[in-house]
Design goal:
Order of helices and strands: EHEHEHEHEHEEHEHHHHHH
Shape: elongated
Helix content: 40-55%
Number of helices: 12
Structural class: alpha/beta
Pathway: Amino-acid biosynthesis; L-proline biosynthesis; L-proline from L-glutamate 5-semialdehyde: step 1/1
Distance between the termini: 45 Å
Family: Belongs to the pyrroline-5-carboxylate reductase family.
CATH architecture of the largest domain: 3-Layer(aba) Sandwich
Pfam family, one: F420_oxidored
Protein name: Pyrroline-5-carboxylate reductase
Number of strands: 8
GO molecular function: pyrroline-5-carboxylate reductase activity
CATH class of the largest domain: Alpha Beta
């Protein structure tokens, strides 16, 4: 529990993987003392959230008005449905929202302008871009404020997302670029661990030992980076003894132009994000 004042009543419409991660973070934090209502389409999905402290879980197939009921009772409404479903959901709940309600998008590619055009001037809109480590409370969430979101609205939504990790406030124009770093970044990391594991197997280690060494080496390195507070380049230099084995390996990686690879990879992701935003 925490001495921090509780968050206002919250609704999560579409408590799937990301909405569910945020829901669990709220419950762990103790900040959801005023209640969270979560909706899912099926009874089976809704049942998975039953029993969480302070959570009311609604199955839309059993309670068709669940989204509007939840939105009407909340001060903060998170929209966690698939991007293609967002406009219809906003039209559905708009008449039920009270003036001053804060609506937060979890949907990739849906602009603040789309939300504001469907919800009107009495609602504060923010656009968020959480990432999958939010599932374990170590996420990074990008947060962009809409036209009618004042400092108070931004602060309360920031507190909400800090229950699942850290928050970076950016203008909306940077949300797509942020998604190529923190949003897609976990996939880049997992790919490197995959390839490192394969390299270990190629040197004669069992698959289990190779995976253990690869995963724990990266997890340990990340923990050292966080605990030390030092620049990653400085930590790399400490591992890289002059004329040693690591220096030889790092030279190969430099020759492969990893700097260019990551620039091209993130540029490709950004181009696709812009295509998705344009409906392509």
């Amino acid at each position: 529990m925490t001495d921090t004042p509780p968050l206002p009543p919250i609704a999560i419409l579409g408590a799937g993987s990301m909405g569910g991660a945020i829901l669990h973070g709220l419950v762990r934090s103790g900040l959801a003392a005023r209640g969270v209502t979560a909706t899912n389409r099926s009874v089976a999905k809704a049942a998975e959230l039953d029993g969480l402290a302070g959570v009311t879980s609604i199955a839309l197939e059993a309670q068709p008005t669940g989204n509007t009921d939840a939105a009407a009772a909340a001060d903060i409404v998170l929209i966690g449905v698939k991007p293609t479903m967002v406009p219809d959901l906003l039209r559905e709940i708009a008449p039920s929202l009270r003036a001053g309600t804060i609506v937060v998008s979890l949907a990739a590619g849906v602009t603040i302008a789309t939300f504001e055009s469907l919800l009107g001037d009495d609602v504060a809109v923010l656009r968020s871009m959480p990432n999958t480590p939010s599932l374990v409370g170590r996420g990074v969430t990008g947060l962009a404020a809409g036209t009618h979101a004042d400092a108070g609205a931004v602060a309360v939504v920031r507190r909400l997302f800090e229950t699942v990790g850290t928050v970076v406030e950016v203008p909306e124009a940077q949300i797509d670029a942020l998604s190529t770093i923190s949003g897609s970044g976990p996939a880049y990391f997992f790919l490197v661990v995959e390839e490192f594991t394969k390299a270990a197997i190629g040197k004669g280690f069992s698959e289990a030992d190779a995976r253990l060494m690869a995963e724990q080496t990266f997890i340990g390195a990340a923990a050292l980076l966080e605990a030390s507070g030092d620049d990653p380049a400085e930590l790399r230099h400490r591992v890289t003894s002059p004329k040693g084995t690591t220096e030889r390996a790092v030279a190969v990686l430099h020759d492969a132009r990893l700097d260019d690879v990551f620039v091209r990879a993130t540029d490709a992701a950004l181009a696709r994000a812009k295509e998705l935003a344009a409906g392509a």
